[in-house]
Amino acid sequence: MAALTAQDAEAGTREELRGTARGGLANLVGAAVSGLGGLAVTWLAAVALSPAEAGAFFAATSVFMLAGALARLGTPTGLVYWVARLHRNGRDGAIGSVLRLGLWPAAIASFAAAFALLLTAPLFASPDLVRLLAVFIPASVAMESLLAATRGYRLMGPSVVIDKLGRTVAQLLGLGAIALAGTATAQWITFAWVLPYFPAALAAGWYLLRRHRASGADREFPDRVSARAFWGFTAPRAAASVAQLGLQRLDIIMVAALAGLGAAAVYTVATRFVIVGQMASGAVGQSVQPRAAAAMAAGAPASARALYQESTAWIVSLTWPVYLAVGLLADWYLRVFGGEYATDEARTVVWVLVPAMMCASACGVVDSMLSMAGKTSWQLIDVSVSLVVNVGLNLALIPTMGVVGAAIAWSAAVLVNNLVPLAQLWRAFGLHPFGALTRRALLAAGLGFGVLPLAVSPFGPVWTLAALAAAGAAWAVALLRYRTRI
Length: 486
Known about the structure:
One of its GO terms (cellular component) is plasma membrane. This protein has one domain (11-434). Helix content is 84%, strand content 0%. The chain has helices at residues 2-48, 51-72, 75-88, 95-120, 127-134, 137-152, 157-181, 186-194, 197-214, 227-259, 261-271, 274-297, 301-328, 330-335, 344-362, 366-372, 376-401, 403-429, 436-456, 461-481.
């Protein structure tokens, strides 16, 4: 009987990994489009606008993202967590109460945030852009929250199709049309970038309504989740989500304020390669979150550990080659956006960020695992400390070191925000990302995309590029060869 139970547990773990792989693959396809789309948006803005105008666009969109994170109130993570747990435990009748508890406050907060931005727009460097973006904050919040609820049902398709593919492609088409027409201004570029949030929000609402009605939850015996239970989990995450996005976007705003819009454009261009890693981690994390929450709820630490370690191997396999290639070919990467961006400062920014982002990738979806374990209060403390480190170092370093100081501040904050929760997760739950497959991925990527190209770099950049191309071909063959294992 014990052997049978062990076999059942192992089979369940394998099924969780297969489910995560299917969802993760769909998310990774979407993340590839979204990540490359983010780079393309940066490139279009950089080549179509002057550095000052591009800096204004980057700073204003960062304000928009931060305001949206504040208005979401942590609802996306709360909805994923509660919908996944209720669905796993057969309590679909209580999902309606969770949706009402999360969506209505977020909707009210989104309109309040939009109104506040409209009033305070003159305080920013580009008030006209801030006013334009403020109008679309409710649509952005609605899209994120509604799609999060569908992920709680373990449905990755809506997030991929509506957000990562649909919204990204619509943004690129709009920006591309404006650039080709030769009428590019910061206002038109901003409008083309933000407009797709509105149809995406409508599509997300339509899909969630269909899924919720199809479950027949409203016809079941009345069941409720209390507001205290929902917000007890979600409230710490609300502050944490703002701080988390602050780590990604606040530095652009601070560079614009302390060093000028031109410097903000240079800094944004130099750091955009990080989008690839963030998208890969986010794609895998979105697939892992509902399954990790269900595993924790079912008291299945082996399943949670396997999810964490296998997903980290995927993230390392996808991000380390990109980070190392950008670091070794920093000049070529920067010149893609225009010669005015290929400066010594920009090159140093790349070199400072690459090792920090590699470390973050090696920690895997540590943020998601900690929140799905129910430790959102720990997560809030961790990300708050990281944000304090980021802001403090930015204030100290940007006036004297410019964009390089901002890169040092961001790198320090990234290390704190990954290593501290990793230590907590390891100590409290025995969860860590360094399984056998992760160790192999770290070693192989480091040798193939780091040591080998660096060894031939004295012979010239062409040799470095050839070594990276050979490593990439071998990497693709290896991933294809071990696709069933991964």
